[in-house]
Amino acid sequence: MSDSKISGCFKCCSKSKAQRKSSLPDILDEKIAKRVKSLLNGMALKTSRTQKIANCFNVCALYFCHIIWGILNIVMLFCGLSITALSGYLYYSMATLKISGSNFDFPLPIATFVFGSLIIILAVFGFACTGRPHCLVLYSSCLIIIMLLEILLAIHIYVNYAEEHASIRYQEIFKKVFKDSIDRYSDDKESWKFVDMVQRDFGCCGVNSSADWYTTPLRMVPDSCCEFDCTLSKDSVYPKGCPEKLESAIRDKEEKCFALTTLAMPLAIVYTALAIPINGYLF
Q1: Where are the transmembrane segments (predicted)?
Q2: Where are the beta strands (DSSP E) in 45-168?
Q3: pLDDT digits (tens, 9 = 90+) for 212-238
Q4: 29-46 and 242-282 helices cross at what angle (nearest 10)?
Q5: For 103, how many CA atoms within 13 A lie in the half-sphere containing its CB?
Q6: Quick count: other Cβ atoms within 10 Å of Cβ 50?
Q7: What DSSP element (H or E) covers 24?
């Protein structure tokens, strides 16, 4: 074999090795961009016009999904953080007040904390899957399983606990907690802090309305019940009671997270369907 043939073979093997090294699944997005550019340049001579348009569309769709995927994961992350913060806030408040008679039999804070933590883990995992098509297959599978579990849980709750009944039950618990707290508002520092914190944060007053305060030892509406100074105008008093506002806020956040998870599943499937064929071109 001549020296030129040996040299050519060596170059071919070296090039093949370099290509194998650069085709690791954990390649950075910057390298993917370079690959896309070289791929499009190479297609100018090797493919038909229809193929070039189709491949360009696939590449553009992939990067568009990158952007949407990043935005979705950021929104999911903030949603998960807000849910875990709310559940921690509720659990801490109950633990501080030592609610009598409930024995802490209140699954909502724990359930929302687990759900929020799951959303955070999915969002972080979603960021880690960016640019890794085979990892996205696992991510899509996890989302599908989670969605199926959520559907089964929703059916179970609907069949065994009617939504109105559950809402009434939660409001009854909130009312008991808040009634005990406003009765001890003047004497107990922890109750005073808890009531003021809830009324300011949720824009509410009393158990059912501000009238509840006139039956307490305080015999007046506290400043936390008002958007502005209560002594200046009675119109600044929050009209709704806190149990209703608190239950409404919790349900609103749960519905938003369920909607985000529902939206994430088809997007993950589409992203995976685009990423796997492009993976064949790029690597």
Answers
A1: 67-92, 104-125, 137-159, 257-278
A2: none
A3: 888 888 888 888 888 776 666 667 788
A4: 40
A5: 1
A6: 8
A7: none
**pLDDT tens readout for residues 239-279:** 888 877 877 776 676 666 566 656 656 665 665 565 555 44
CATH number among 3.40.462.20, 3.40.50.1240, 1.10.1450.10, 3.40.50.720, domain 164-282: 1.10.1450.10
Contact 119, 141 (CB under 8 A): no
What are residue 216's phi and psi, to 5 degrees? -95, 165
Give CA–CA dist 164/252, Å, rounded. 15
- Are the C-beta atoms of 251 and 4 separated by less than 8 Å? no
Each residue of 37-64: pLDDT tens digit?
Answer: 665 565 555 556 677 677 677 777 667 7
Output the six-digit token pair for 175: 């009312």
Which tokens in the block code for residue 96? 């501080």
At CA 87, angle to CA 176 and CA 93, rounded to 5? 45
Q: What is the pLDDT of residues 162-193, one digit of tens each?
A: 455 555 666 677 788 788 888 888 887 778 88
Chain centre distance of CA 132: 21
Selection from 90, 71, 46 nearest residue 197 by Cα: 90
> What does the block give as tokens for 180?
């005990």
Q: What are phi and psi of 196, to 5 degrees?
A: -65, -40
229 sits in the region (left: phi over 0; alpha: psi -120 to 50; else beta) called: beta
Residue of 246, 185, 261, 180 lying closest to 221 (CA atoms): 185
d(CA 36, CA 51): 15
- Contact between 57 and 255 under an 8 Å Cβ cutoff? The reply is no
